Amino acid sequence: MLRRFTWFQYKETEVLDVEALNNTRRADRSVLFFNRVPKVGSQTFMELLRRLSMRNGFSFNRDRVQRVETIRLAPIEQLQLARMVSSYSEPSVYIKHVCFTNFTEFNLPQPIYINIVRDPVERVISWYYYVRAPWYYVERKQIFPDLPLPDPNWLKKDFESCVLKADRECRYLEGEIHEGIGDHRRQTLFFCGHSEKCTPFNTVGALERAKMAVEKHYAVVGVLEDVNTTLTVLENYIPRFFRGATDVYYDEVNAFTRINRNFFKPPVSEEVKDMVRGNFTREIEFYQFCKQRLYKQLRALKLTKNTYETNSL
Asked: Is the omega angle on the peptide bond into residue 266 within 30 degrees of 0, that is, cis?
């Protein structure tokens, strides 16, 4: 199978250093923490890690399915989470939908942080139809039988109509703190952290805090739209956990691409997507920031390899 890389624009004069771009070396323990963002292909990457755990010999751990998923935690809950993850023997991986948790604030050893991002508008559309998919409610009812069924009119509401009619669910207002339906529109929230300053939607403050966390703490933030580059960077920057990831992924590519795929999601016009993008400016900026960083990491690998080959002649 042909594996084609998409190269991002970079400055020819920019000095790129693999060591400077790799936060894996800053981790205090060989424990990988994947605080996965919803609807970015995280189910696929979670399954990839499960299979790699058997191949590369590390412990695989994930959060249990919850009735109500809590993304932002109180300080005592953050401490409990950090203690639990710190208790895992090395090497281990832990996976959970949760905001970035800084273990060093609790005087606990820092793990290796990773995550994945996705185009914010495509992601919010995916979430919109995910929570309306019939199989989603079948699975939820099987686990939590007493859950009430949603309003049929809400289930039938399509995304384009929701946007064009300025429905409360699809207005995406800047500075909004609580949208009331848990649609996870704030991708930055998973990097910004648990602070109340991270909750207003599409704000400069949340954006800058999220960028800072990525630069300072995350070994790799992959991009769903470029799996090839993501896997290559993961393999080279975190080899203890991702050795052979590309081969495992493509050996089982059909199985992976079927995970969590929603066949009930209709197409959305570019005109409507453009309307929504107007309200996602800083979320889009954060996505582009993560994308640029990933390609810098890839470019640094290429430069390092070329230098090694030249010096070996």
From this structure: no
One of 3.40.50.300, 3.40.1010.20, 1.20.58.410, 3.40.50.2000 is the CATH number of 18-306, namely: 3.40.50.300
pLDDT confidence of residue 124: 94
* Token couple for 117: 């991002």
Q: Where are the beta strands (DSSP E) in the chain?
A: 31-34, 59-62, 92-95, 112-117, 218-223
- For the question of whether the overall pTM of this predicted structure is more than 0.70, the answer is yes
Mean pLDDT, range 35-57, rounded to an integer = 94
Taking 90 as the threshold, does the pLDDT of residue 115 lie above it?
yes
Identify the bridge partners of residue 92 per DSSP, sorted by sequence position: 31, 59
Burial degree of 170 (CB within 10 A; 0-12, 13-18, 19+): buried
Q: Is 110 strand, coil or helix?
A: coil
**Domain-wise residue ranges, the chain:** 18-306
DSSP helix/strand/coil, 53 = helix
Taking the C-alpha atoms of residue 115 and residue 143, their distance in angstroms, rounded to an integer, is: 27
Segment 174-207, tens digit of pLDDT: 998 875 555 578 999 999 999 999 999 999 999 9
CA neighbor of 219 nearest in space, from 13, 32, 44: 32
Give the position of tokens 């639990």: 84
**Measured distance CA(173)–CA(280) in Å, rounded:** 9
Active site residues: 97
| Mean pLDDT along residues 128-149 | 75
Q: How many CB atoms lie within 10 A of CB 264?
A: 11
Tell me if 172 sits within 8 A of 276, measured CB to CB: yes
> Within 10 A of 283 (CB to CB), how many other CB atoms are there?
28
